[in-house]
Amino acid sequence: MDHRGRRQRLAQLLPDSLVLLLGHTATIRDYPADHHPFRQDASFRYFTGFDEPDAALLLDTSSGESTLFGVEPDLEDVVWHGPRPPLAERAAAAGADAYRPIGDLPEALAGRRPLTLPASRPSQRDSLEALVEDPSPSEDLVRAVAHLREVKDTDEIIEIEQAIGRAAELHAAAMAAITPGSEVAAVARRLGEVVAGSGGEWAYPLIFTTHGEVLHQFGHSGRMETGDLVLHDGGVTSDGGYASDITRTMPVSGSFDGRGEALYDIVIDAQSLALGMMRPGVAWRDVHHTVGRRVLEGFADLGLCNGDLDNAAERGAYGLVFPH
What we know:
The chain is α+β, with helices and mostly antiparallel strands and 324 residues long. It is 44% helix and 13% strand. It is built from 12 helices and 9 strands.
């Protein structure tokens, strides 16, 4: 991906500025060498491609020069995680013009007021507060980053399609594994094997449950029986860290019937309505509201709601069952 080109376009949008982008730190489990799987800050990775903890980027938009701050491997790092190239080599691979140890960042910022983005984690917020006098996010930087990231380039589209393709494989495997009497945990383990085999990683903890009324039900206890519906919310990353996030509800018996079938039809109708509305210039809010109104109509036909549907929709009543 053209990370240098992205930084150049950012510099054009913010002339005569100093931009500070912070990566994420590793989240420790019990001691420094034992941490949770690392997930880089999305905007930092977008502009650097640098997928390592404890890193930062300073971009001088006047000169266009970018300096990558990172960790130089020491003996302890090699013992725990194996050898890796020196910081100079890794920074060059990211297309940085210069590099410095992450410990030099306070000195590099002394007396300067860089533009920053909102912190995505408490640890990132703490770092910003320690580094700069005023850690308030820059609205100009936020708008510039959003402007660049909302239009996907060819490389990004390939990554997105890869992530979605891997999720499709995951959902197909789930449908094949669901049978009456199956343990939920057994299917969840099978899905983990599919993700590992795809070359990707979980985009977030798997939600696979017969209690779909709980938005984030991460437990995998219980058994699936005839008549149950299983909610499968599973996403997979691409090689470059882009994530899919697809949710489907599946009947354990293999086909919907009764009220389940009626609700399924309402959802399909709502989805078709949304897709038909999507075109340049249409506000997301209008799509959401129109689809919510259609969901209420379907509920009224089933006797699940009554009264003035226009008033109910205006007040967001569909949010009770349509929170996303």
